[in-house]
Write a structure and sequence with these properties.
The complex is a heterodimer. Chain A is mostly beta strands. Chain A has strands spanning 4-7, 10-13, 19-25, 32-38, 44-51, 57-58, 67-73, 76-81, 90-97, 106-108, 112-116. The chains are: A mainly beta, B mainly beta.
């Protein structure tokens, strides 16, 4: 089945550091990937839609300069949390769908736990 | 706008008993509905979906869900719960009217299956 790999799984770093998270579709091509943020005991909050070859589409309230998204190929999207601060600590999850068909499920990465000290 | 509601934050069942996790939806057109499960510190795993056809949908790990158009519900069910089913469950609906076919998730229901 379709596999989405997310790396790293856990990051601990100092305040002010920029952190890059990778999301790869291993056995299929994804023109669109989604980035979510999940707070403890809460649902997933869609942050942005990553589009291969074009700019990402951000949800209202999400700072595009803070959360940089690059979708350089059909199998890779990256999320960079720039100058991270403790309030950016969270669980970040990416997802991708096969072929962009709307009746197909999204496949999720295993998430990245980001802890900013 | 599309949305889903999961009215229960937590569901407790004894192992071997049937379980139900509730979900209701609101859509402007035909609903594309999904159930996902999340284990601690993991991403979401797809369980099943309803697009069209039979109202009773069978999915992974013995789970099934019943689509009820009149009640706008899509409850997740399993005839006999296992301790290993304990996890966080999310109902989701896909926005067919907007760009990029976004998913909208419910607030999640924590399922606790006790031995």
């Amino acid at each position: 089945g379709a596999v989405v790999s997310q790396h790293p799984s856990w990051v601990i770093c100092k305040s002010g550091t920029s952190v890059k998270i990778e999301c790869r579709s291993l056995d299929f091509q994804a023109t669109t990937m989604f980035w979510y943020r999940q707070f403890p005991k809460q649902s997933l909050m869609l942050m942005a839609t990553s589009n291969e070859g074009s700019k990402a589409t951000y949800e209202q309230g999400v700072e595009k300069d803070k959360f940089l998204i690059n979708h350089a190929s059909l199998t890779l999207s990256t999320l960079t949390v720039t100058s991270a601060h403790p309030e950016d600590s969270s669980f970040y999850i990416c997802s991708a769908g096969q072929g962009g068909r709307s009746n197909q499920p999204q496949h999720f990465g295993d998430g990245t736990r980001l802890s900013i000290l | 706008a599309q949305s889903v509601a999961q009215p229960e934050d937590q569901v407790n069942v004894a192992e071997g008993n049937p379980l139900t996790v509730k979900c209701t939806y609101s859509v402007s057109g035909n609903p594309y509905l999904f159930w996902y499960v999340q284990y601690p510190n993991r991403g979401l795993q797809f369980l099943l979906k309803y697009i069209t056809g039979d109202n009773l949908v069978k999915g992974s790990y013995g789970f099934e869900a019943e689509f009820n158009k009149s009640q706008t519900s899509f409850h997740l069910k399993k005839p006999s719960a296992l301790v290993s089913d304990s996890a966080l469950y999310f109902c989701a609906v896909r926005d067919m009217g907007g760009d990029f076919n976004k998913f909208y998730f419910g607030s999640g229901t924590k399922l606790n299956v006790k031995p």
